[in-house]
Amino acid sequence: xxxxxxxxxxxxxxxxxxxxxxxxxxxxxxxxxxxxxxxxxxxxxxxxxxxxxxxxxxxxxxxxxxxxxxxxxxxxxxxxxxxxxxxxxxxxxxxxxxxxxxxxxxxxxxxxxxxx
Length: 116
What we know:
Radius of gyration: 14 Å
Number of helices: 6
Structural class: mainly alpha
Low-confidence stretches: none
Shape: globular
Mean pLDDT: 94
Helix content: over 70%
Distance between the termini: 17 Å
Strand content: under 5%
């Protein structure tokens, strides 16, 4: 059984909200803001073959608008999916209200986990 850290929980909730918004509103993920976000992430992460591989995967996912892979990244709890969620450029698709709702949900879930 893996331990779910607050960071992992927050990222998972954020990416779930992104996926729900994409599906509900029929949003394209191949947009200029998402591409800029990916470029910014690429500039700021340490360069290693593994990080480059994850970022190249995001580039392909965005280009092909592969929502099935996004769904697997959101729903799977393994090292690769956690790292892919951590590097996701898709959060730019959420507006301030969307983010606020996610952070409120995160606070409630974190508080509940601490109680018991």
